[in-house]
Every structure is written in C-alpha cells, then in structure tokens.
Amino acid sequence: METIPAKHIVHRTRDTSWFGTDHTMNLYRGCSHGCIYCDSRSQCYGNDAFDRVRVKENALETVRDDLRRKIRPGIVGTGAMSDPYNPLEKELCLTRNALSLLDAYGFGVAIATKSDLIVRDIDVLSLMREHVPVLCKLTITTCDDALAAKIEPNAPSPSRRLEAVRALSAAGLPVCVLLMPVLPFLEDTEENVLEVVERAAGAGAKYIYPAFGMTQRDRQRAWYHRELEARFPGQGLPERYRRTYGERYWCTSPRAGRLWEAFSARCRALGILYEMKHIVSSYQKGYGDRQLSLFS
What we know:
- By secondary structure, the chain is an alpha/beta fold.
- It has a single domain (3-285), classed as Alpha-Beta Horseshoe (pyruvate-formate lyase- activating enzyme).
- The protein has helices spanning 59-69, 89-92, 94-104, 122-129, 145-151, 158-170, 190-202, 218-231, 237-245, 256-270, 276-283; strands spanning 3-4, 10-12, 23-25, 28-29, 54-56, 75-78, 108-113, 134-139, 175-179, 207-210, 213-215, 250-252.
- The strands form three sheets. A seven-stranded mixed β-sheet has the order 2-3-6-7-8-9-10, sandwiched between helices. A three-stranded mixed β-sheet has the order 1-5-4, with no helix packed on it.
- Mean pLDDT is 94; it is low at 290-296.
C-alpha cells in the first residue's frame, strides 16, 4: 500500500450547486476502475499514476482536524476524483470511519461511486440520515454488462450496482443514479437511456441525473481514442469523434435533444426527479438551515 502526504482533505467548494455540497473529501488518490472516458486522466490534475490507488497519510486524523476547524456544518461530497469504495477500502475502512467523523461533527454527505461496496455502510449512513442529509449516487450509464466491461473494465457490473441501488433504497436511503457520461456513438440511444431509467426506478432510485455526452481534453482524449480503437476495433470510433468534435472539451451527443425529451418524459411518468434543484431540495428537505444556500 502506497501513501501520499496531505495537509488537508476536506476542502470548501466555491460553488454549492453540484448536489448542494459545501465541501469535497477525497481520502484516496487515483482509481482502479479503469474507465476509458475518465476526465481525471487530464493533465490539469497532475496525476501521472491515475490507475494506481494511493492512500492519503493520516487520513482520518486530517479529516477530523479539518472538520473541527469549520465554522458551521455542511454537506461533504466525496467520489469526484477517486472512488471512495475502491478495493483498498474493503480492508482499510477509511471511508466508513470518515462517515462516522462527518456524523460526529454534524456534516451530511453526498457519495458518488461505481461500487456496490457502499452497501456495507448502510448502517452508518442510516444513522447519519436521522439528523443530517445523506445522498447515495451510483453511476450507471448502461444496463449492458458486456458493454460496461469494455468501457469500465474493473468496476462492478451495472447489474451489481442496480442491486446496490435496491439495497440502499430498501434501507430508506435516498439514491440518485448518475446517468453520465452517456458516451456518443456507444450509449446514446433511446433504448439504452430508457432501460437505465426503468431499471433504476424499479430498484427504488428516487433521482436520476443525466449528461448526454462527455468531456475530452489533452491526454484524456488521446487515452480515450486509443482505448476505443483497442476495445471496438474496426468501427472507426476515434475518427468519428475527431470528425464530430475536433478539439472541443464538451462533446454533446448529436442525439441529446431527442434523448432529453424521451428521458424527461419517462422520468415524469415514473415519478423520478431529474433536475438538480429538485434533487437537492428533496434530499435535504427537513434539515433546516443546512438546505442549499442558493434557495435562500
């Protein structure tokens, strides 16, 4: 196990609009899922060993010290740069113990993960939700396990993630499925999008938040194009991306308009919330002044 130094781990966010989070927390650096589209490979993040998960030194002590310096509690987001439920977490339990620290200091949490290991912590999350907001976000961009194995080769399958959604929802925890990124020319069909919506709703998800497209920049783009050629040989996907998007950062699906219409209509029919302001208002409802400041 490799460790890296960290002076602080819980950082204040400049913009609270992303799921109403006031702070970010990454206990690990790097990710083992191997997702071919991951933006965290970009040069701007300075992580040349992104596929190797490393642990931040004295992580729990640092989190504790960071939390007690905060003037008022808020919502801590985790999972943006490194999945908090990577394979090391099964033994180290850093995320589990950090959740207990958040609870002790009155902070809520919004977790993003591709791992069904999150169900291990249903007991801690349920205790937290008695007095602070909790949101469990699981990324599912396709229900096709075979396709997912090509684009997210080391992550738990969508089938396993849907079972995690079911277990979390059955425990009374608010669950949001992150339908993002929906990869152009691979996942951006109405059939794929609507299947995710229906199966997520069937598993008990209350919210689904989509992005019909992806981002591409510098070495992330080069990595993605190489992986497309290796995993989908003979389909000409890298050239199709270059022809459609060039050097653009935002790569919206050419079908985004139609997908949004079909997606939003199906969500409304199933009673699923899908707009950010409604998701935030719902999962933070009943927690007083901890609700998102942009609504005040």
